[in-house]
Amino acid sequence: LLMAFRDVNARRHIGLQQLSSLALAGRTLLGPVKSCKFIVDESTNQSTLICSAVRLIESLDLTSAAGQLLNETIQAQNKEFKTGMSTLLFLVGAWSNAIVECLQQNVPVSAIVSVMSEGLNSCCERVQCLQISIHDVNKELCSSSVRPNASKSKTCQIGCNSLPNSHLFLYFQKEISVPEVIPINSCSHQDDDCNFNKHLVSPLAGFGSVATLVKPAGDKSTSVISGNGVATSSCSKQKLTHSRYFSTLGKSLFSSQQGNFQGYLLGPSADSCEYCGLGHLAMALSHGNEPSMKLLQSIVAYQQERAEHSGSSQLNVAEIVTCCLLGLPESYSCASPGFVTLLSPEQVTVIKYFEDKLLRILLIDGDLTEQYRHLGFNRPCNVRTIVEHPSLQEGDLWLSSMLDNLINFEVNLVLVKGNVCENLRERCIANSILLVSSVTWNVLCAFGEVTGAQPVTYLTQLNASCVGSGAQVELWKASDGRATDLGELVPVRIKARGIPLLTAVLTTSVASKMQLIEDQFWTLVYRLHHALNDKKVFLGGGAVELLCLSHIQMLVEQPLQPANQNAVKEFHNPWLAASATEYKSVVLQALASGWKQYLLVVMCNTTKAASELEVATSVDHHLRKAADCGCPSAYILKEFRRGDLLRDGAGPFADHREGLRVYDNVTAKTEAWRRALDLVLLVLQTDAEIVTGPRKNQLLNSHVSSEFMFL
Amino acid sequence: MSRLEAKKPPLFITEPLTKDGVSQSLSLLSRILKSCYGPAGRLKQLHNGVGGCVCTTSQSSAILGRLPVSHPVLGVLMASVQNHISRFSDCGLFTAILCCSLIENFKSLNVTSCTVIKISKHLLSLCMDYLKSEACGCRVAVDFSSVETLLCLVRSVLRSKPACMLNKTEVDHLTTLILKAFLFTVPCHAESNAVLGKCVIVPVKGRRVMDSTVLPGLLIETPEIQLAKPLTVKRTCSNMIKMALFCVSMSGDSFNPEEGTITVHHGISLEMSELNQLLNVGKQLVNDEVGLVVCQKVIHPSLKQYLKENGVIAVDRAGLSLMEPLSRMTGSKPIASIRLLSPSCYGSLKDLCTESFASKNFVHLIPDDTVVCSLILCNRNETAWDELKRACETAEHVLQLTLKEPLALLGGGCTETHLASYIRHKSCSLSTSSFEDIDCSRTQYQLVADGFCRSLESVAHSLNHDDGEILTDMVYGHCWFVPPGFPPVSSWPDLVSKCGCGINGNGENLKWRLLQGQFCSPVIQDCPKDPLVKVADFLTLDCYAAKCSGLQVALETANLILDLLYVIKDQN
């Protein structure tokens, strides 16, 4: 074994150059308006459509050490936050470039490292004043939604065009929290989420707008959903499309009565300010991704309703799963309570047989095959079995004993975490037992919780206490009852009374967009999740970056402190203290250039600005005014509230929705910055690669062999 | 048909050090190691070149462990440094750099190697005597009644590892945590043969460093546990939890012997009989009122189910590394068989609860006596986490060594320059009889002593990685760094504020001179003084035991390598 050793050229740092060229590919993925990319594999001619930094990095060939570290960093951000990866990738590139320029000006590495990381720390502290607590955001968003100019907006008209003025609209909101309700009919169906006890809010009936009080049977909570559809007492099933901003399909008032509305199509209600705030918050965090936002709003509505108005504004991510249906138009995406999955057509007969029945359910947390053994079980290799009567086949024995087990305990439905033996599946279909494979652990847990089933690993473990009851299965239907014949597989909905689980059914007729839609949905879910966890959000739309720029400007202009003074009560750092002050302004400018580039590219991507120059002028204009006014954060906050901040780039909403607020996650954003800088500084401080392993000859013959030394 | 091949004769290499290849490799190794040294050290990316994981590091333990070297001379050097690291964790780079420098410096002298060895041994003894004496000007006593010096020691270790990517606040946070974890491991009631407990590092990668924390007791990862439900544990009459600890696999496959074949009749299932055996164990555990069963390996799902139904909490896959601390903490003896179960093996636990960090779920075993603790260590990415883990382990070890010998040496290059000026002063004032004892001339002694001092100074020199100057003062013999970018004629007092370790300020006229490491004329000077103030809050301190050992290992290894006459290589 030999070791090869490569010096990294200090002036033209190879690692930094690699980072910057990798990051260049991600420029168009930045900001609310992204351009997708096709990644083509030349060897197979297959291509993938990508629209996020994670997928980009996944599809690139990253053999260099710097590329490998970049991949690791992006994956770590993705695992932790599911958002901020494009920002991270972009800043890695921008800061790498800026640092290479510093190196060319002979700035010592240690000065770059210390000034940059101190600078970022200082900026992160400074921008804390642009954080707004979730509570305040809700208040603000709710009040802004009833401002006169808000009712002018396009989508809002659908929701409240019948209201004479915004005061009434406000009145409507207020009234609804203590509504006078008239029971119309009560349903005796067992299905809690399919059929609601209908109530009508009488004072508003005359306006043609309605609020429906929804009371799920068996659920003590009372929740109110306001809608723009007219509820009539004879209508036992009704579609609820009642966002004041959006109508799910954008149909006219009365059309919503038609079709087969399954009732479980959910929409945000407006029973309290807190509530509608979450819907608004989702919108403010969606950065223009409307389909995902609508889905999320209905999920939030459902979870809030379940939370019995306990005031907990948490979003439970573990209770959300996705199901991708290829072949339906995108407008069919919706949230369904329970678990929606795809099954083979043979099993459909069983499902039809099961309809309207309460099923006994079993959960298996392994595979359902004869060969499967739990993890950590080592198969014996030295056991020989003597068979005296070779008439009975082993496999049949297993099949029939498993089937007997299931029949004995009257199991109707088995959810299996892993794979299922095909023969067993067939035998089960014949006996009207449904086996569903590849069910994730959190789905199993959700069903275990509400049905009382205990997950087991083997069918031999089965006893009466393992089997749960009360599960239901039905074919999943699209909102208009359209046949969902998707070729091979049929979507099926499995549910149980009171199950907290929700499936976001994502539909598209373009196969290559499926992944993209799913990624975008999860990104938004996690943005809201993190916003609620952080209990605060950043002002969006470039406000934070702008304040960073203004803060750095101030740091640069600050009189340099003599080295002797700042070393008083601090841990002594003889290498850095003095030299850092010497190069401070150059390095700080490099740090600022990252955010400046970020703003320019975001604005240009939204195509609201004609050129980078135009944006740069606008940014400089704001910076000057911020500096002039003495308190940059107050200026930025004021401009943000006026909606004037870099308005030519406020995203796709800018044209038709004035006063729309855009917010960002706090931790995800600052962490993306920190991770980006950490990576760049890590690569910057690296002066050599050490290649270990038995590849000496390969290295010797390669075109870079002259760069290596061998020990 | 067998074929006999004639044995090749062994290869003889005479005076290996004079060969070009060796000295080139040696200087390359020395260059690599010097470039890694200190808080501003440059990092190395270790990888296999085909897309494997990349280790970014500047620590000797990571680099030396993965550097395969071809030449036996380098092999000797690396083996002895690695041996030092395994015993002390700290000062590996110091040892290696000093050793390389000594070899280079001594080799260039026109003195026979046996004389060099004799003289250098004498020099080493001078150093060691000085370091052990009360008068030593570069050591400080560690006062365990206050945390300040201990914090300095830990902080110095963390700060010297730039690949951990920590900022000031993070360094401070981790320093406190490491010290806290260490204090947990010190038994409260010290007996004559007190043994330190253990701190187990729990990896949580991808999180912020500031999310790291220390908990008394142990954490075992349990992916399937549901956090929402509180744990209900069976307790004994004394309100403790009885616990059984298994180190044998309970997955039901232990009928699998190493060799031979088992023949069974159809219809007889070994698996079933094994499972029945396991269920019998389960029955006994339930009868014995055990509340918690922990298994190093896997527990059969059926046994788990049985235990759960009977109110016993079962935790499997605890892993080998947790066994010793688990056994220590709970007093339970690891059970190595599922056929013999003695009640005397059971241990006890004060409490049990669930914890969650990042997306991982754990059960938290809380003991009565907290000599075992868990450091939940977070860092943003994999490569930085690995580096941080090594750094934390080093810091923990340094604290343990310091507890044994409550002394610390000044860091930041000051100990090296101070020792060098002490030796320079001492070698001038040596009596003639001493030279007779060593059997050398005064000139020879002076030459070797100068080489020795230059080697020490070159270690201090390698702390600097930018183009700035390095100075030493004539009063205390400490090390001073001039920031890069200033003309050489600048007035030094304006540029330097503090010495490397941070103990001296530039208040008085300290008569600085350039420290040029290699080829400077010998300097005659007075014995360096002891700094007046010895207690300062923010000092860079090194581990006393590790540095003393490093000095000895470096010199002895250098002597060994200088003494090499032949390398005999078996070519078969």
Automatic annotation (TrEMBL), chain A:
<dbReference type="GO" id="GO:0045494">
    <property type="term" value="P:photoreceptor cell maintenance"/>
</dbReference>
<dbReference type="InterPro" id="IPR042984">
    <property type="entry name" value="BBS12"/>
</dbReference>
<dbReference type="InterPro" id="IPR027410">
    <property type="entry name" value="TCP-1-like_intermed_sf"/>
</dbReference>
<protein>
    <submittedName>
        <fullName>BBS12 protein</fullName>
    </submittedName>
</protein>
<dbReference type="GO" id="GO:0051131">
    <property type="term" value="P:chaperone-mediated protein complex assembly"/>
</dbReference>
<dbReference type="Pfam" id="PF00118">
    <property type="entry name" value="Cpn60_TCP1"/>
</dbReference>
<dbReference type="InterPro" id="IPR002423">
    <property type="entry name" value="Cpn60/GroEL/TCP-1"/>
</dbReference>
<dbReference type="InterPro" id="IPR027409">
    <property type="entry name" value="GroEL-like_apical_dom_sf"/>
</dbReference>
<dbReference type="GO" id="GO:0005524">
    <property type="term" value="F:ATP binding"/>
</dbReference>
<dbReference type="InterPro" id="IPR027413">
    <property type="entry name" value="GROEL-like_equatorial_sf"/>
</dbReference>
UniProtKB/TrEMBL annotation, chain B:
<dbReference type="GO" id="GO:0005829">
    <property type="term" value="C:cytosol"/>
</dbReference>
<comment type="similarity">
    <text>Belongs to the TCP-1 chaperonin family.</text>
</comment>
<dbReference type="InterPro" id="IPR028790">
    <property type="entry name" value="MKKS"/>
</dbReference>
<dbReference type="GO" id="GO:1902636">
    <property type="term" value="C:kinociliary basal body"/>
</dbReference>
<comment type="function">
    <text>Probable molecular chaperone that assists the folding of proteins upon ATP hydrolysis. Plays a role in the assembly of BBSome, a complex involved in ciliogenesis regulating transports vesicles to the cilia. May play a role in protein processing in limb, cardiac and reproductive system development. May play a role in cytokinesis.</text>
</comment>
<keyword id="KW-0547">Nucleotide-binding</keyword>
<keyword id="KW-0963">Cytoplasm</keyword>
<keyword id="KW-0539">Nucleus</keyword>
<dbReference type="GO" id="GO:0005813">
    <property type="term" value="C:centrosome"/>
</dbReference>
<comment type="subunit">
    <text>Component of a complex composed at least of MKKS, BBS10, BBS12, TCP1, CCT2, CCT3, CCT4, CCT5 and CCT8. Interacts with STUB1. Interacts with BBS2 (via coiled coil domain). Interacts with CCDC28B. Interacts with BBS12. Interacts with SMARCC1, a component of the SWI/SNF complexes; the interaction takes place predominantly in the cytoplasm and may modulate SMARCC1 location. Interacts with DLEC1.</text>
</comment>
<dbReference type="GO" id="GO:0051131">
    <property type="term" value="P:chaperone-mediated protein complex assembly"/>
</dbReference>
<dbReference type="GO" id="GO:0060271">
    <property type="term" value="P:cilium assembly"/>
</dbReference>
<keyword id="KW-0206">Cytoskeleton</keyword>
<dbReference type="GO" id="GO:0048513">
    <property type="term" value="P:animal organ development"/>
</dbReference>
<dbReference type="InterPro" id="IPR027409">
    <property type="entry name" value="GroEL-like_apical_dom_sf"/>
</dbReference>
<dbReference type="GO" id="GO:0003006">
    <property type="term" value="P:developmental process involved in reproduction"/>
</dbReference>
<dbReference type="GO" id="GO:0051082">
    <property type="term" value="F:unfolded protein binding"/>
</dbReference>
<dbReference type="GO" id="GO:0005634">
    <property type="term" value="C:nucleus"/>
</dbReference>
<dbReference type="InterPro" id="IPR027413">
    <property type="entry name" value="GROEL-like_equatorial_sf"/>
</dbReference>
<keyword id="KW-0143">Chaperone</keyword>
<dbReference type="GO" id="GO:0048731">
    <property type="term" value="P:system development"/>
</dbReference>
<dbReference type="GO" id="GO:0005524">
    <property type="term" value="F:ATP binding"/>
</dbReference>
